[in-house]
Amino acid sequence: MHISNVLGTKNDVKKISEIGHGVGAFVIIDGAQSVPHIPVDVKDIDCDALVFSGHKVYGPTGSGALYCKQDILEKLSPFMGGGEMILSVKKDSFEMNELPWRFEAGTPDIESGIVLGRSIVWLKNLLEEIGGWDVLIQHERSLMKEFLDSFDGIEWFKLFGKKNVEERYGVIAFNIEGFGFKGCKEMEEGKKEGSGIVEYLSKKGVAVREGYHCAEPLHDRFKVGPTMRMSLGIYNNIDDVKTFSKLLKEALLSSY
Fold first, then answer.
1. Are 213 and 5 in contact (CB under 8 A)?
2. Are residues 177 and 208 in the same domain?
């Protein structure tokens, strides 16, 4: 994973690729959290493959993209058969199509592919307008700092991960003392259900996620239960963060 979708921490995937290749491993990078927040150079990383999801680059849900080195793709066999992935079919044999069609069996989700492509072009153009990736990164860090500063010294706010925003990218996960969030296997005695806070925020127009965020082993590693996560995008501004901070405190008070 290039950037953790829970901690916001960036891993040294170039070093990981080097170590992996040193023992003959195939290195595939999860770039879902990194592609919309930092520049990603697959040649510099030297990974064998990298994947990312479409909705995190402001495209359609259910879409995504795979990069893979051509020499590796040429050695792989398709896992699915169907139209377009074959050049010809005989009674007792068939000939596979060239790349990339041999891995695209059947009728693809054409609409999502087109919209995802346009979303990436939109993001690229917007980055050029605002002055590049460094501007976006500093913008997101200023928003994270505003949010974390607003809870500085508040005992019930339990941050998950590093407080230094210079070591975070795009997300903040946290717990609220005395509450348990969706996915908690056994609600600890005395804890309140945290889903009510999430619902309160939703009704006020603020979307957050609660749970393990597809990273339950990570939560287990740090001995914490499900968390609430705030995700930032290129469209967020300081007023959004101030509103969220205010509403989160209101939601907590309304839960007692």
1. yes
2. yes
